[in-house]
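Chain A, query sequence.
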Amino acid sequence: MTRPSSPLVVTELTGSHHEVGAEHGRIHRHLIERSIAVYGQLFHDFVGIRWEEARDRACHFEAQIALGFPAILEEMNGIAWGAGVDFIDILTLNCRSEIALTQANGGCSAFSLQRHGQQWLAQNWDWRHDQLDNVVALHIRGDGRPELVSIGEAGMVGKIGMNACGVGVCLNAIRSQTCGAGLPIHIALRKILESPDYDSALAVATHDRVCSPAHFLLASAQGDNEEGQAVGLEVQSGEPGRISPRDGIVTHTNHLYADNTPCPVQDFPRIDSHPRLCRLDALLHDELVPDARLDEASLFDILSDHQGAPLSICRHFNPDQPAEERMETLFSVVMNLSERRLTLRHGKPCESDDSLRLTLS
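Chain A, predicted structure.
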């Protein structure tokens, strides 16, 4: 694995789920404490509840996690032990989408691209600025599990990333009032990152299911044509809606748009979601030269696009939004799944080309 050049350094974690969690908690104890404070305020702003009430809500998801991914409870216990906090605090962080995002959602613009035998996956993660310094890059070598990289938030077991089997996943939040049976969003993302192949990863959405609506952009380095494959999955507690590649491309922002969804749910997107999706489509389908050689820099240029600001792909501070919903791009990630390489820019991708690069064996 190559060494990072970004100020955000990679956290190396090895061993059983509990050992991985305990080291995560020990190393990032102060960031976890800050994450708890951030989400305490966020729960108040978004849904009008205090941290103690959020803890009570999180407890309802423990049984579903025990049913669908019991080993990850050991890791959350380890994080709590290492950080010196209560297990329920870590459970609450990992169920934050189910607690808050049924009422409000962040941004995020994501795409997959298959070109010249290479499968790419990329996105901006847009969220509240006060969580910027709590972003962590976890490199996990678990006993008997695929080596993986997850870019996410301190105290949480998974988010956006890839594994050494060439499986990768991105996330778009969806605002909806639906929440049912299945795995919480961030638990499901980690289970995907531990999947040894595309079919196993797909089964997380189609078999385990996901409690609340979100979009998972799932891709793999290996497909039927040995050149990669991808699918957009508008996950929920029912059968997910699917978005197949068009000219090797899948795009998504923060609204539901899959055709013929077996179990449709209602979403409540903000006004910036549709313009960002249209701009992504224009950049990838109309402006990207078909025979041009792709690299990380060219894809970060797409993620740095400001057309239509403040409703742009690269999100900056917008004073016209309500204070509690001002979202900014906090990190950008580009993954070459075929070469098992992930490149991260911490902060807005337009402001620096200083990157953390990880290549899995």
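Confidence is low (pLDDT under 50) at residues 1-6. The first helix runs from residue 17 to 27.
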